[in-house]
């Protein structure tokens, strides 16, 4: 049963790759509108957990509810549809199409969601400070600007859930702070944000830190 006010809930969530137990009966609850950081050493299971929470993978066993939907019971196509409609993803690697300009890269996310809406794509870029870069190709943008295009792409369909995997890993200190400012603004706007990071300074920007150790959440 869904707990009122919670955007993410897992119960005994387990993921096994052959003999490797990547997640071991993880129980987790993240409130709607909460900004949480997933932290842990390499191999702790945080990326595996992020992939399952963001519907990029499915658990071996256990339950997962996202905004009340039992996504662990969905097939691959069902997860894809839920992801495109309800989730925004920001990665360390930018994953921009090199021959599409910034506006077209953002509009591509709309295409997979429903219909293309250029004005809202322009607004998404404007919201991350890139109204002067609509026509620029990824190769003409700095690393920080490319990451902001990725954030605009993640936000254009107005998802309630934002997952960010090491979102500032390839950025300098100035651009790292810009990206954090955007995430803080999204948090103030009521979005639920889960960020994977190994950086304590980034973790401190979240209102809650969730630490994983050998596939389990540390108490």
Any overview of this molecule?
The protein has 219 residues and is an alpha/beta fold. Helices cover 34% and strands 27% of the residues. It contains seven helices and ten strands. β7, α6 and β8 form a beta-alpha-beta unit. The protein is globular, with a radius of gyration of 17 Å. The two termini are 23 Å apart. The model has no long low-confidence stretch (mean pLDDT 89).
Summary, kept brief:
This protein is an alpha/beta fold and 219 residues long.
Produce the secondary structure layout:
Layout: E1 6-17, E2 20-31, E3 35-39, H1 46-53, E4 61-66, E5 69-70, H2 76-86, E6 87-91, H3 102-113, H4 118-127, H5 143-155, E7 161-165, H6 173-188, E8 192-196, H7 200-203, E9 208-213, E10 216-217
Parallel strand pairs: 3-8, 3-9, 6-7, 7-8
Antiparallel strand pairs: 1-2, 1-4, 4-5, 9-10
Helix pairs in contact: 3-4, 3-5, 4-5, 5-6
């Amino acid at each position: 049963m869904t707990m009122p006010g919670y955007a993410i809930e897992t119960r005994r969530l387990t993921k096994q790759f052959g003999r490797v137990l990547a997640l071991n009966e993880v129980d987790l609850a993240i409130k709607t509108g909460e900004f949480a950081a997933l932290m842990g050493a390499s191999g702790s299971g945080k990326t595996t957990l992020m992939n399952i929470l963001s519907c990029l993978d499915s658990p071996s066993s256990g339950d997962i509810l996202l905004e009340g939907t039992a996504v662990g019971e969905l097939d691959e196509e069902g997860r894809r549809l839920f992801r495109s409609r309800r989730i925004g993803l920001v990665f360390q690697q930018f994953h921009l199409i090199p021959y599409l300009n910034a506006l077209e890269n953002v509009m591509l996310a709309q295409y997979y969601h429903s219909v293309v809406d250029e004005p809202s794509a322009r607004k998404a870029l404007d919201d991350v400070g890139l109204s002067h870069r609509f026509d620029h190709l990824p190769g003409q943008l700095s690393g920080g600007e490319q990451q902001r295009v990725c954030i605009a792409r993640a936000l254009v369909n107005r998802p309630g859930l934002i997952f960010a995997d090491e979102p500032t890993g390839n950025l300098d200190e100035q651009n790292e702070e810009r990206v954090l400012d955007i995430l803080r603004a999204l948090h103030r706007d009521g979005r639920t944000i889960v960020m994977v990071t190994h950086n304590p300074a980034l973790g401190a920007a979240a209102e809650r830190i969730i630490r994983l150790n050998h596939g389990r959440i540390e108490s």
